[in-house]
TrEMBL record:
<feature type="region of interest" description="Disordered">
    <location>
        <begin position="88"/>
        <end position="107"/>
    </location>
</feature>
<dbReference type="Pfam" id="PF05762">
    <property type="entry name" value="VWA_CoxE"/>
</dbReference>
<dbReference type="InterPro" id="IPR008912">
    <property type="entry name" value="Uncharacterised_CoxE"/>
</dbReference>
<dbReference type="InterPro" id="IPR011195">
    <property type="entry name" value="UCP010256"/>
</dbReference>
<dbReference type="InterPro" id="IPR036465">
    <property type="entry name" value="vWFA_dom_sf"/>
</dbReference>
<protein>
    <submittedName>
        <fullName>VWA containing CoxE family protein</fullName>
    </submittedName>
</protein>
<feature type="compositionally biased region" description="Basic and acidic residues">
    <location>
        <begin position="92"/>
        <end position="107"/>
    </location>
</feature>
Length: 378
């Protein structure tokens, strides 16, 4: 595949789409990607239809993988792929990437005040965030060094406890006319894992959403690789908005971006929708994943269980923080929680920012599985 360093900025997405197809096993040659970019140049392009036609003509997806090709094209260039649940149009889970095209307003009337009820009915509304003192500055400073680490494929020079750097060692031998110097060593670099936070913004979580968004802003500012999504009846990626350094401005952008504040919840379908978009599900691979939700799933919880199992298979550590656990009498007694408890690494109290920040800063330390802890408590 060609290198993109000297390409015009506008060509980068086209090259990236070719790389995406190769990553998923499509037989795309470098010449085809070059032809794709040339075809787009010749067509203008006047619209996304031109880019789509150029992709079909030059990248030539096999007939038996045409549907998969269309799904990748929609998710990559539009970021608004939809996952249809049980074939019913009313149950579509809409996905919104930062600044993506808006969806038509839903006309479902509000049936309950605040977060008293959890339902699957969609309600679109806004949110206003006010500044207050919350002590997140210390959390932001500590986060980068507190996250779990992994070994990178990149290597760095070291004086001890490394592997022989044969190339540099041979150059050194030649430079000193054959004398044997001290061996030159390299070791694999250690880098922090990604932090992925999924925030439930449904009506039943209304009392906690504001604090969770402030925590998410601090996480994005403090960690080098953090991704934040909200979900209720829709799925929205808000990472870019939270990269704005001023918190008031960042949360104002988030308030305008998210459409489903304080409405119903379809946790299982929205998590499956997250997994259906390749570049979104890639965020979960090897990440420390924290879901901030009460996990009050209405109806059949099979989709929620399926999504949690798939997320667990991808993530380094999967944690559910529920504000319901702040009650000393809380037990994971709902059918949904009983189904997903064996898969969770952590089930913790999500009712306070102080507790959540302490927990996130402790993610690098091992802990007993959630099922073992709650079995002892019950």
């Amino acid at each position: 595949m060609m290198r993109g360093e000297n390409l015009p900025l506008a060509a980068a997405p086209l090259l990236g789409f070719g790389r995406l197809l190769r990553r998923y096993g499509f037989p795309v040659a470098p010449e085809q990607v070059s032809g794709f970019m040339q075809a787009v140049t010749l067509l203008g392009p006047r619209s996304m239809i031109d880019i789509h036609e150029a992709a079909l003509a030059t990248l030539a997806p096999p007939p038996d993988r045409r549907d998969e090709f269309e799904a990748h094209f929609q998710s990559y260039f539009y970021g608004n792929a939809t996952a249809v649940v049980e074939g019913e149009a009313d149950d579509e889970t809409r996905i919104k990437d930062d600044g993506g095209p808006g969806d038509e307003e839903n006309k479902v009337a509000r049936q309950a005040e605040g977060g008293d009820l959890s339902s699957g009915a969609e309600l679109l509304s806004g949110r206003d965030f006010q500044r207050d003192g919350d002590g997140l500055a210390a959390f932001r400073r500590k986060l980068a060094t507190a996250l779990p680490a992994r070994s990178s494929f990149r290597t760095v020079r070291t004086h001890a406890r490394g592997k022989l750097d044969l190339r540099r060692s041979l150059r050194e031998v030649v430079s000193v006319d054959g004398d044997i110097p001290s061996p030159l060593l390299r070791r694999r670099q250690t880098v922090p894992r990604k932090l992925l936070i999924l925030i439930d913004v449904s009506g039943s979580m209304k009392l906690y959403t504001s604090d969770y968004l402030k925590l998410a802003h601090a996480a994005v500012q403090g960690a080098g690789r953090a991704e934040i999504f909200t979900f209720g009846t829709r799925l929205t990626r808000i990472t870019a908005a939270l990269r704005i350094r001023d918190r008031d401005q960042a949360l104002a952008h988030v308030a305008a971006l998210v459409d489903d504040w304080d409405g119903g919840t379809r946790m299982g379908p929205t998590l499956l929708a997250f997994l259906s978009v390749p570049r979104f599900s890639a965020f979960a691979r090897g990440a420390a994943l924290v879901i901030l939700s009460d996990a009050l799933e209405r109806g059949d919880h099979a989709e929620l269980e399926m999504a949690i199992r798939r997320l667990s298979a991808r993530a380094f550590r999967l944690s559910l923080a529920t504000p319901l656990a702040g009650d000393p009498r809380f037990q994971p007694a709902t059918a949904a929680l009983r189904a997903i408890l064996p898969v969770l690494d952590d089930l913790i109290d999500g009712s306070s920012i102080a507790g959540l920040t302490d927990f996130i800063l402790s993610l690098a330390r091992p802990a007993p599985a959630a099922a073992a802890i709650w079995k002892r408590v019950s």
